[in-house]
Write a structure and sequence with these properties.
With about 210 residues, this protein is an alpha/beta fold. Helix content is about 30%, strand content about 20%. The protein has one domain: 3-Layer(aba) Sandwich (Rossmann fold), CATH 3.40.50.150. It is built from 7 helices and 7 strands; from the N terminus they run αααβαβαββαβαββ. It has a 7-stranded mixed beta sheet, with helices on both faces.
């Protein structure tokens, strides 16, 4: 089986996979493709520099904490940064020893847990890894956290995509138009839309 066929097989199986199955798959990704540092530092710097309140930060899918390490070093007013990460290998090997950083491997999909109360939520290269049916649950959970500011970065396009033939674990077929509609349904508005140096779209979102 080629690399592309392996990823396509994952996408085909995803609708029938449970949380433990997806978590185990990401452990396989950790062993075979550990370099998953895909956030854009420059864009995140710009986002955090514009915040007046950033005391408590919630991150989804922050891998080994690269984004957290950079922002925690820049902002002593951040009191806690919680990273909910589905890959246990990444959780166990953080790149930062900052005591404010807390990596968490949830035992269930995060939207089936109690959301912590935070000021900021970071979703960098995350939404493309959940299904169309799962995304509303994730965004509702973020809204339940009372996060007022969201950083969202993703390689999705405007009208949607199927990802077949792509060497990735991406499964979301919704495009930015529908994602923004969902954000607005939870009381969020896009305040800024940028293109990262990587070419990936970035949204600065506020409530």
């Amino acid at each position: 089986m080629t690399h592309t066929q392996h990823w396509d097989s994952y996408r085909a199986a995803y609708p029938d996979m449970g949380y433990d199955d997806v978590s185990a798959f990401h452990d396989w990704v950790w062993k075979n493709y550990p370099n998953q540092h895909h956030h854009s530092p420059e864009m995140m710097d710009l986002f955090f520099a514009g915040l007046f309140t950033r005391t408590l930060v919630l991150e989804i899918g922050g891998w080994t904490g690269e984004a957290a390490a950079r922002q925690l070093a820049a902002y002593p007013d951040i009191k806690a940064w919680i990273n909910f990460e589905i890959c246990r290998g990444a959780v166990l090997r953080p790149v930062t020893t900052d005591p404010r950083y807390r990596p968490v491997w949830p035992e269930h999909w995060v939207w089936n847990t109690i959301a912590p109360t935070v000021d900021v939520a970071v979703l960098s290269h995350v939404i493309e890894h959940v299904s169309d049916k799962q995304l509303p649950h994730l965004l509702r959970w973020i809204a339940d956290s009372r996060a007022r500011h969201l950083y969202i970065e993703s390689p999705i396009n405007e009208d949607g995509q199927d990802w077949m033939g792509d060497n990735s674990a991406h499964v979301l077929t919704l495009g930015w138009g529908r994602v923004i509609d969902l954000l607005e349904s939870f009381g969020y508005q896009v305040m800024k839309r940028e293109i990262a140096p990587s070419g990936h779209p970035v949204l600065f979102v506020a409530q």
